[in-house]
Each structure stands twice: as structure tokens, then as C-alpha cells.
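Students often ask what a holo structure prediction actually looks like on paper. The answer is less mysterious than it sounds. You provide the chain, you provide the ligand, and the output is a string of C-alpha cells encoding the 3D arrangement of the protein together with zinc ion.
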Amino acid sequence: MDNCIFCKIAAKQIPSASVYEDEELLAFKDINPAAPVHLLIIPKVHIDTLSSIQPEHTALLGKMLALAPKLAQEQGCAPVQQADGSLSGGYKTLINTGPDGGQEVYHLHMHVIGGPKPWRGQR
Ligand code: 5GP
Ligand code: ZN
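The corresponding C-alpha cells follow.
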């Protein structure tokens, strides 16, 4: 898609701090991080929003979701069990969809947001 910033990032026409790439997906650091770890996972193919997906995108979406825990582990923000059995760490995955969903970039992307708190908007 012409004029789509994430298509340009996927095509390496605009640089990004990438942390993962394969034939179908790219993951890179958000330029304005809301937390110590803030990644964006995108499909290389242009899809406007989650609400634009077609049945043939189901496997791609599964791949995006399955990548999140791997990247969180690599970035050091996966949940960890403490000696007393409690959990620490963790992250959230988020897909903003449409204006009321807070979507600003209209190329499907999944946020992976985590790391030690406080984060923006979080206690
Ligand atoms: P949305 O609100 O659409 O879910 O989130 C878009 C995200 O993309 C924002 O968190 C914003 O900081 C990030 N972003 C926008 N432009 C760029 C860019 O050129 N490079 C990178 N790395 N992140 C961007
Ligand atoms: Zn695009």
C-alpha cells in the first residue's frame, strides 16, 4: 500500500529497530514506547484493521499471537514464578481497532507491552 508507514517499514524503506523477521511477519520497537518493553508485531501484507481480516488470514493471526510470548521471553518480560509461588513480570497484547479503539496506524499491528511498572497509564 502506497503511503502506509508500516508497509514502508516492512519494505525497509523506513528504518525500524526490528527484533524479529520472517517471510510473513516483522516485529520492531515502538517509536514512542509506553513501557520498558513495547513491540509491534505486523504482517508484511497490508491489512487495514482487525475488522478487515478474511478467512485466509486466520493462520497469520495465530502466528502473530504465538510470536508474542517468544518475544516477551527474549525481551525479559515474560511472567516468572517466584520462590514463594507467586508470579512476577508479564506483558499485555493489544490490537487497537478503528477510531474508537484508538487505532492510529491503519496497518494491522499487535502491541506487546510489558516490563517493570509503572508504565504510562498503569500502576
Ligand atoms: P495504534 O494506536 O495504531 O494501535 O498504535 C500505533 C503505534 O505505532 C503507536 O504506539 C506509535 O508510537 C507507533 N508508531 C507510529 N509510527 C511509527 C514509526 O514510524 N516507527 C515505529 N517504530 N513506531 C511507530
Ligand atoms: Zn500497510
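The pocket of zinc ion (ligand 2) is lined by residues 1, 4, 6-7, 46, 107 (CB under 6 Å).
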